[in-house]
Amino acid sequence: MADKRFLDAIHDALHEEMARDPSTVILGEDVGRKGGVFGVTDGLYEAFGEARVIDTPLAESCIVGVAIGMSVNGLRPIAEIQFADFIHPAFDQILSEAARMRYRSRNGFECPMVIRTPYGGGVHGALYHSQSIEAFYAHIPGLKVVVPSTPADAKGLLKSAVRDHDPVLYLEHKKMYRSVRGDVSDGDFTVPIGPAAVRRPGRDLSIFAYGLMLHESLGAAELLAREGIEAEVVDVRTLRPLDTKTILESVARTSRALIVHEDNRFGGFGAEIAATIAEEGFRSLDAPPTRLGGPEVPAVPFSAPIEEWFMITADKIAAAARTLVAY
Q1: Is residue 269 located within the same domain as residue 218?
Q2: Do the strands 76-80 and 114-119 form a parallel or antiparallel pair, or are they unpaired?
Q3: pLDDT digit string (tens) for 165-216?
Q4: Is the same domain home to 291 and 167?
Q5: By the 8 A CB rule, do 134 and 239 touch?
Q6: Which regions span the lipid bilayer (predicted)?
Q7: DSSP reduced 3-state for 48
Q8: Is residue 129 annotated as part of the catalytic site, yes or no?
C-alpha cells in the first residue's frame, strides 16, 4: 500500500499495462517525449519506445480513427485527447465506428480501446479547457464511460478499461491530478467497470456524485454532520453502465436524493439518475429527486471570481441538501 497522487495512479496503471501486454500502445498529442501536458505519460516513451508511445498530429478524429483501426487489428490502443474540450471532432468516429463496431459486425469484431481525456474546471482553463462532456457520450450504447474519483479507482478502473473488449471513455478531472491523494494497493489489481461505491453511509439523504464532485460532496457531508444531518455519499464512478441497484438501495435507506455534477444542469447526466430514481424508486421518496449542476452558461469562465461562481462547492451542496431535508 502506498500513498499516491491521482496523476501517479493513472501513470502507474499505464506503465503496468504496457509492461504486461505488448499489444498495448499509447497515442495522442505530446504523449511521447513531452510526457503529456500534465505529465501523465512521463517516462513511457523512454521505457517502451516510439513504436508504442506515439506522438500524433493535432487531429482528434485521426487519433481516434487510428486507434479504432489498431483495435480491430489486434492491438489495445489507449488514445489520449489532450483536453476533453477537443474531443468533439472525433464524435462521429466514436459514435458511428467505435461504439457500433460489435453491433454492426454481428459480433464479428471487437473494439478494445480506451480514450483518456482530462475534463472539468477549477483550474482557470477558461472556455476551451474546462468542459465536462460526459452527458454527450454516456448517451451512446456500446460505449462505456468511466469517471474515477480516487487514486485507487483511477488505477484499477483504467486497468479494467484497457483489458475490456469494447471501447471505454475514461474521464480524468484535471483539478484532481495533483490535489487528490489516497492509498493504492501494491501489485496488480483491477476495479470492475459498473458498480458504484458508497463512500460515506447516512440516513437523511443520498448524495450521488463522481469525479471532483465526489470530494466536494464528502466535504458537504462533513458540514452537514455538524448540524445533525447524516448524508450518504455514493460515488457513481461508472456512468455507462450505470449501477441502478446501488442507487436505488441508497434512496431506499434515506428517502431523499441529491445528484451533483459540474456540467450544466439542463440535460446533464444527473437527469438520468433522477429519472431512474423517480421511475423505479418512487415509493421510497419523501421529496423530489433534486439535481445540482453548473449554471446555464456556455462554458466555465476564465475570470477567477466568475469561475468560482460557476463551480459547485461543498457549501453549495450543503445548502441544497438542507433545503431537500427540510422539504
Answers
A1: yes
A2: parallel
A3: 999 999 999 999 999 999 999 989 999 999 999 999 999 999 999 999 999 9
A4: no
A5: yes
A6: none
A7: helix
A8: yes
